[in-house]
Amino acid sequence: MSTTPLLAVRGLVRRYPLAGGALGRRRGWLAALRGVDLDLERGECLGLVGESGCGKTTLARCVLALERPDAGSVRFDGAELTRLSARALRPVRRRLQVVFQDPHASLDPRLRVGAIVAEPLRIHRLVRGAVLRRRVDTLLETVGLDPTLSARHPHALSGGQRQRVGIARALALEPELLVADEPVSALDVSVQAQILNLLGELRRRLGLALLVISHDLGVVRQVSDRVAVMYLGRVVETAPADELFATPRHPYTRALLAAVPLPEPGGVPHPPLAGEPPSAAALPSGCAFHPRCPAALAECRRDEPPPVPPGARRGAACVLAMRQESLDSTA
Ligand SMILES: Nc1ncnc2c1ncn2[C@@H]1O[C@H](COP(=O)(O)OP(=O)(O)OP(=O)(O)O)[C@@H](O)[C@H]1O
Ligand SMILES: [Mg+2]
């Protein structure tokens, strides 16, 4: 058995120029990713959660090689994606697929469902004719859709059905990793659970690895084995999902949990998240969370806590959490 993770992200940095200075000159840089480390094992589901603007989509785009980071590395099954040419990337791209947030915007309205699902197979010239049609039918069945829907246009489908079509298309090339960026946030709450169940079921049946991105901890909780919490371009906590929800260590994770309307029986309520979500364009000194942290110490204003070591089973980038951890381990 191979011990290399399917996906290994190390020290990922992505900055965007800030326009708006005098005469349209650059005002500086916005740090969307500030050294992200992340591992994803084969067949694993990792949930990535954090508030709007913390860098989730930027991370996904770097993992999918749609965007080049300014520093750091993205290794997929051992291959360094940031160094591959467009040509060398092509075969790797097949193994990494994406499901977008808004199926309405991501499905071509002029095409019928059958053509949408068939498109990747056609582009990669894998199958055609009757074999292609059968393959499309099977893909539709795999995502719980009736193959007769092939003849419809996306606008004739419900939101949930459209997202299933998006998933069927993503599965057409038999990827090993599926990145789902806010896969249910455009859907009615009643449909969200169905789509999340489908993702979980596909993962079990097809042995897919999943990276599920959401601003909603409730969503991530439903599907993830492991969760990474992001704050302003950094991973601030990672843990197995059940442990993260039972005993969150980073004050930011605690605050996020307090905002989820799922009371823990017998649990102590966590303090809610205070203050404005800060901007990646104007980072606070020290720990980026300190201005909103109910437990911040003087040193938190000054020193950035060390990142969670990649490959650690669990960890939090917080001096208080780290002290608590060492107390726990000596107790
Ligand atoms: N192409 C771009 N040019 C300039 N700034 C960008 C660009 N893309 C993202 N940003 C900025 O980078 C930061 C991270 O954005 P990103 O879209 O990755 O966040 P997110 O966590 O996906 O947010 P959301 O939950 O709203 O989708 C934000 O401050 C955003 O404004
Ligand atoms: Mg996003």
Describe this structure in words.
With 331 residues, this protein is of the alpha/beta class. The chain has a domain at 7-86 and 212-330: 3-Layer(aba) Sandwich (Rossmann fold). Helices cover 35% and strands 21% of the residues. It is built from twelve helices and eleven strands. It has helices spanning 56-63, 86-94, 103-106, 113-123, 129-142, 159-171, 189-206, 217-223, 241-246, 251-258, 298-302, 319-330, and strands at 7-18, 28-40, 45-49, 71-76, 79-80, 96-99, 177-181, 209-214, 226-231, 234-240, 315-316. Strands 6-7-8-3-9-10-11 form a seven-stranded mixed sheet, sandwiched between helices. Strands 2-1-4-5 form a four-stranded antiparallel sheet, covered by helices on one side. Strand 9 (226-231) and strand 10 form a beta hairpin. The mean pLDDT is 91. The protein binds adenosine-5'-triphosphate (ATP) and magnesium ion. Residues 16, 30, 32, 50, 52-58, 215, 280 line the site of adenosine-5'-triphosphate. Residues 56-57, 181 line the site of magnesium ion (MG).
Itemize the secondary structure elements and their pairings.
Layout: E1 7-18, E2 28-40, E3 45-49, H1 56-63, E4 71-76, E5 79-80, H2 86-94, E6 96-99, H3 103-106, H4 113-123, H5 129-142, H6 159-171, E7 177-181, H7 189-206, E8 209-214, H8 217-223, E9 226-231, E10 234-240, H9 241-246, H10 251-258, H11 298-302, E11 315-316, H12 319-330
Parallel strand pairs: 3-8, 3-9, 6-7, 7-8
Antiparallel strand pairs: 1-2, 1-4, 4-5, 9-10, 10-11
Helix pairs in contact: 4-5, 4-6, 5-6, 6-7
Adenosine-5'-triphosphate binds next to strand 2 and helix 1.
